[in-house]
Write a structure and sequence with these properties.
This protein has 354 residues and is α/β, with parallel strands linked by helices. The chain is 44% helix and 16% strand. The protein is built from 14 helices and 12 strands.
Amino acid sequence: MKGNEALAEAAIRCGTDAYFGYPITPQSEVIEYLMTERPEKRTGMVVLQAESEIAAINMVYGAAGTGKKVLTSSSSPGISLKLEGVSYMAGAELPAVIVNVVRGGPGLGTIQPSQADYFQSVKGGGHGDYKLYVLAPASVQEMADFVEDAFDIAFKYRAPVLILSDGLIGQMMEKVYLKPQQARLTNEELIEKHGDWATTGKPKTRERNIITSLDLDSEKMELRVRNLMKKYDQMEKEDLRYEKINCDDAEYLIVAYGSSARISQKAVELGRAKGIKVGLLRPITLFPFPKDQILELTDQVKGILSVELSAGQMVEDVRLSAQFKVPVEHFGRTGGIIHTPEEILEALEQKIIK
């Protein structure tokens, strides 16, 4: 399946209640697949093409407020339009899953793959003090697997979660294992599970549940923000995800995520064949970021190369993590051009090994 199709099918199978979206290349297969598959007949899942990205994210806000499992997807310019709603959901502490299949920018840019939405994704993106838990798939299988993972995290922390893919992973085809169909929660089960916060109708036994990100009392608002920060600290302690490849004896380190990590893994093989002891650290979560793991490797390696499909964004976090103990350089392509393993190895030799 294509990555976009695998994600859409996984959404149906993990018991998603609703999808609200709007087509934009290179993620249009998500909504196209859902419209074709007619999940309302399979599970009762609602699929709706909104009149705009702004409308879609506000539909997500409303449905998430009822405790339902709600999903939306878009690509870079469309995500920009959704960010006000994402900030509102973070402030109102609502669980939802947002998918960004990144294309090149800035502006309308290109429909080709890019990773230049890193800053937008991990630095908040919208207004105010908030963060998103960000999962970065590197395969079609992970496009499928991360949907259920994202919902688990979203409901654990009552927070929006972002799956940050790109046009390469979204469009490529691979074999994929799909999990069996899960039943959607009944309204009774939902009330039992989320009735302490969701807007499910007010019984006489409790006060009203009010969903809002607004608080005009400054002291209460500060307390609300501090509680959000505690959630993000907990994410860093309990739900950090990363992968190490050939790092045990590495003298040089590549840090890359998503499609860049796939290509870098081949560059590591090429480097090892030439006698260069190079390893790969792949952040699976971009927030939380594996900063301690990178810092630990600085005691071992002579230099680090951050590989991205961008002009250089994640490299800033790699440098902060390395605390200037070893040289950190960047290699990337932009405009939708995808780097090759040979180019990555050449960049490592020229920028780090010298």
